[in-house]
UniProtKB/TrEMBL annotation:
Residues 172-270 form the HTH araC/xylS-type domain. The lineage of its organism: Bacteria, Pseudomonadati, Bacteroidota, Flavobacteriia, Flavobacteriales. The keyword Transmembrane helix does not apply. It holds the Pfam family ExsA_N. This is HTH araC/xylS-type domain-containing protein. Keywords: DNA-binding, Transcription, Transcription regulation. PROSITE patterns: HTH_ARAC_FAMILY_2 (PS01124).
Amino acid sequence: MATKQINKNAEIVFSCSGSTRHNTEMISEEHCVVRVLSGELKVIQSNKTYVFGLGETLLFPRNQLSTLVKSDKDGLPYRAIVVKLTQDVLRAFYEQKKLQATLVSKTDYIIPLSQSPLLDSFFASILPYFDLNYKLPQELSQLKIQEAITVLRSINQDIDNILSDFSEPHKINLVEFMERNYMFNMPIEKFGYLTGRSLTTFKRDFKKAFNTTPQKWITQKRLELARFQITEKKRKPIDVFYEVGFENLSHFSFAFKKQFGKSPTEFVNHNLR
């Protein structure tokens, strides 16, 4: 069964993946709080991998890049509740409370949240909403988001520094960013946005830095990473292609052979000799 989402266009979503393994890319323009109800969620970022299971909760800060691997565990499919902390609701919350945060460097990682009865109670109160045969009223949705903000602030004293930061991505070092994040599969426009550049400026700066086009450079880097994973880490092509940024195995195999003269399977067979 394909991934199912209830209240798909709302701020509160029930996500269920009935497949044994389901991969997606995560890049959200809103902060998201995720509670895993069953199954397992692996979050792969440029510098770290996290694994979350039953009853665990995490915060995805907005505009962060992650690959998500959703898997069955203990005979149960991956199921989760996702609450989007929209910028409009966050602005209203902080303006009403007259709260200000001390600005700190933007986080480039997700935030695991400690176990808390407040979190348990919050998510338990949301579950009945998914039995509704109509969209959750906007007023109620906003109240629950405000409740989520209040809970987060009570269990993490540093959370204001993230939730009350409404700035857009500023111009950052393009080379460092691309070297860390080339494996994430997203449009070139999004790479530009996250480095604080328009598409035109991004392409111009990229050409200066790498003396080639973004797409050619990204493809080559992904293939080099895949070869390393296959030859040095002894991993199977089917376990590698998605993590390095390819959408399907056949396209990966074609590009790999074109680049290195041998298919991924031929590299594997050579390693087994």
